[in-house]
Amino acid sequence: MKIRTITTGISLSSLKEIEKIKQASEFNQQAKLIIEEQGYEVQTTRIATNSWEEYLHGLSKSEILNEIKLLEEVCQNLNISFFSLGYASKPETIALIPDIIKNTSILYTSSKIGDTPKESLRDGQSPAFGDRTSGINFKNARESAKVIQRISQETEDGYGNFHFCAWANCQSGIPFFPTAYHQGETSFAIGLELCDLVMQAFDDADDILDAEEKLKVILDQELSKIEATARTISHKFGIEYKGIDTSLAPSLGKKESIAFAYEKIMDGKFGNQGTLAISGMLTRVLKSVSVKTCGYSGLMLPVCEDVGLAARANEQTYNITNLLAYSAVCGCGLDTVPIPGDITIEKITAILIDMATLAIKLDKPLSARLFPIPGKKAGEMTAFTSPYLVDCRIFNVE
């Protein structure tokens, strides 16, 4: 098991609060050292803020971009490699995101396109779809689709979309990027890479029920150790510990592929019959562990971040509709999904609205990180140069 991220959340009122960013960076490094002393590999440390609409309020477009460029310089001087600006929730600010992405390299951001209207649900009423504060915000969804298209056209190979996603019903405290944002006092959360433990459990399992029992035992045992260390860190530095996001973050290693783990206990390949059942089982286990959880705490299926998922996509054993169906019982939605470069804004919007509909109907956090690939069509291969991504056949979008 590896620690994918230690993510510290801070609330800013302006970007002049450099000291608060510096303190968060120093805390991350100290926390990293303490966890590494316990024998774990910590892959990244990250900082997430409240919505940038709050601390860049009232500035012009050029002023916002200048402030963000200065922020990137500050982060680079502090050796910060992952910094989330939080989310945008208005069409006019969402529209600025392509300029933010193409003028920075370590900053991430997201857009909010929907929320479950808690009050309406408690009263037994239907969600107020289309309302600006609850249900699906169609204007934000369409503006986010425009953002995805623009980023794909204005960054090399469309890679800028790695730094952006649209989400619905996501709460603060998710440690994984680009969805991560923060509210309240400074706190930290931990995100893990657990595929090796899934492989371990599934290797010895007779069937899906046996796999579920074995995985629960392994996770309870291993995650309790991480939590004990996290609570020690919290007490030592006086910073709130939000919990562990137990999501199965992907690995680029073939031995830790989540798709190949599935295939140890199913009759067929990932995407064949039985995939949905295993997805549901994994999520049950991830949500039942005996530690404090936060964030998605579900199954992630990022197509271009997992060798096995990419391989099965190349074999066309599943499609975008399948991924949305799996999201109904598991993870974080649609992640690093390559789609044709000439896809229309209308089709991207439809995908985002489908995702948001599931999030609101099922009252769960979901997001979409889509990769239109410039100049390429469905069936062709991506050609990423990033060490974080594997190449994959581009999905067909009807």
Describe this protein's structure.
About 40% of the residues lie in helices and about 15% in strands. It contains 14 helices and ten strands. The two termini are about 40 Å apart. By secondary structure, the protein is α/β, with parallel strands linked by helices. α1 (about 20-35) crosses α9, α7 (about 140-155) crosses α14 (about 345-360) and α8 runs antiparallel to α9.
Summarize the structure.
With 398 residues, this protein is α/β, with parallel strands linked by helices.
**What is the radius of gyration computed over CA atoms, rounded to a whole number of angstroms?**
20 Å
Question: What profile does the largest beta sheet have?
Answer: 10 strands, mixed
Low-confidence stretches: 119-133
Please tell me what the overall shape is.
globular
Name the helix and strand elements from N-terminus to C-terminus, one letter apiece: EHEHHEHHEHEHEEHHEHHHHEHE
In percent terms, what proportion of residues is strand?
Answer: 15-25%
Calculate the terminal CA-CA distance, rounded to whole Å.
39 Å
State the secondary-structure class: alpha/beta
Please bin the fraction of helical residues. 40-55%
Number of strands: 10
List the total number of helices: 14
**Averaged pLDDT:** 91
